[in-house]
Amino acid sequence: MTTQILLAGSGGQGILFAGKFLAHAGMMEGREVSWFPSYGPEARGGTSNCSLILSDDPIGSPVVRQPDILIALNLPSYLKYMPEIVAGGLLIADSSMINERCLREDIRVSMLPATQMAYDEDMKGLANMILIGLMLKETGIVAPETVEPSMEKCIPAGKAAMLALNLRAIALGCGA
Known about the structure:
By secondary structure, the protein is α/β, with parallel strands linked by helices. It has one domain (2-175): Pyruvate-ferredoxin oxidoreductase, PFOR, domain III (Pyruvate-ferredoxin Oxidoreductase, domain 3), CATH 3.40.920.10. 38% of the residues lie in helices and 23% in strands. It has six helices and six strands. The chain has helices spanning 15-28, 75-81, 114-120, 127-139, 144-154, 162-175, and strands at residues 2-10, 32-39, 47-55, 69-72, 90-94, 108-112. Strands 2-3-1-4-5-6 form a six-stranded mixed beta sheet, sandwiched between helices. α1 (15-28) packs across α5 (144-154), α3 packs across α4 and α4 crosses α6. The longest helix is centred in the N-terminal third of the chain and has 14 residues, at 15-28. The chain is globular.
């Protein structure tokens, strides 16, 4: 089985980190993985997206043109990539940042006010991981027992204090 995922938003929203986390979790589960980040020249506020492929078979190309799953953290990303989701695919989006209603009837749509939830829970900047939690709940693409060890490997030593917050954000998304 092969799943193509596109994570998209603005620089500073943790798109690349979320993709890296999922890629690492896939590797821990013995899957073939491709992680292909792309971002604008700005460190914060520029465009950012990440193509991720998790597969049981070798991956021929890291490019995701028609994702099975789109995680959109802002309106420009939603507008640009939502039409590209394959029929039967899944849209995960932050309704705090996206005020458009998805009119596509051939995809599943799950929206959470992730930015507002992160703010309310004193987890500013972790809307990305709340949406990852929602995706894990909706798809089961990564086993629950893989989440914590993967996160432990992805958090740099200098930010070890962020481990518990990231796990809490994922749990919040899973419980939504």
